[in-house]
Amino acid sequence: MQKLFKEAPCTAIIAAINIVVFFFLTFQGRTEDAGFLLEHGGMYVPYVFERNEYYRIFTSIFIHAGFNHLVNNMISLFLFGINLEKTIGKVKFIVIYFISGLGANLLSGWFDVVQNEYVVSVGASGAIFGLIGALLYVAIRNRGRIGNISGRGLLIMIVFTLYYGFTSVGVDNIAHLGGLILGFILGVLLYWKRKPRYNEYRSHY
C-alpha cells in the first residue's frame, strides 16, 4: 500500500475517498435505492437545473449503487489509473479524471433532456472511461503499449464494455462514451512523448 501511494498517490486517494463515501452511506441506508442516492448527492437533471443544485454533477462521481458497482469501478480505477498517473503525472491525471467525469455527467444530463427521461445517475465510470480514453491515446503514441497494457487490449476491453452496457439495463452508456471521448481528447492535449536525451556521445577520428 505504501508503494502504491508513492507511485500513484492521486489514484490511491481517489479510490480511498470512493470507498469511505460508500461505507459511510451504507451505514445510513440502501445504496441501491434511487431515492436514497438522490437524497445524498446523486445526479438528477431536474434537481440540477431547476433547483440549481449543480454540486450533484460533482458529488455523483463519488457515489456508487451497491457493493458490486463500487468494486468493479475501483478495480478499473486501479488498473488504468496507476498506469496513466505514472506516465502522465499527477496534475494532468487529476485534470483528465475530473474533467472527464464532469463532462460525462453533463453529456448524460443533456441526453436525458433530449429523451425527456430522467433517472438518478451515480458512479465514477465516466471519469474512469476518461482515463481509458487518455491511455488509448498514450498507447497509440508509444507504438501500442503503455506499461503492462497494450493498445489492442484496451480496444478489446472498450468494445466489450460498451457492448455489455448497451445490452444491459441501468447502465449510463452516454456517460461512458462521453468520458471516453473527453479522455482521448485530453490525452491529445496533455500528453507529450518525451524525447530521448543524448547526454553521451562518441567521437570518431
Automatic annotation (TrEMBL):
Pfam families in alphabetical order: Rhomboid (PF01694)
The organism's place on the tree of life at top rank: Bacteria
Entry's localization field: Membrane
Record's keyword terms, sorted: Hydrolase, Membrane, Protease, Transmembrane, Transmembrane helix
UniProt entry tagged with the keyword Disulfide bond: no
Major place of residence: membrane
Membrane topology label: Multi-pass membrane protein
Domain Peptidase S54 rhomboid per the UniProt entry, residue ranges: 52-192
Chain ranges passing through the membrane: 12-29, 57-82, 94-112, 118-140, 149-167, 173-192
GO process annotations (BP): proteolysis
GO molecular function: peptidase activity
UniProt keyword Hydrolase, yes or no: yes
Family of the protein in this entry: Belongs to the peptidase S54 family.
Protein name (Swiss-Prot/TrEMBL): Rhomboid family intramembrane serine protease
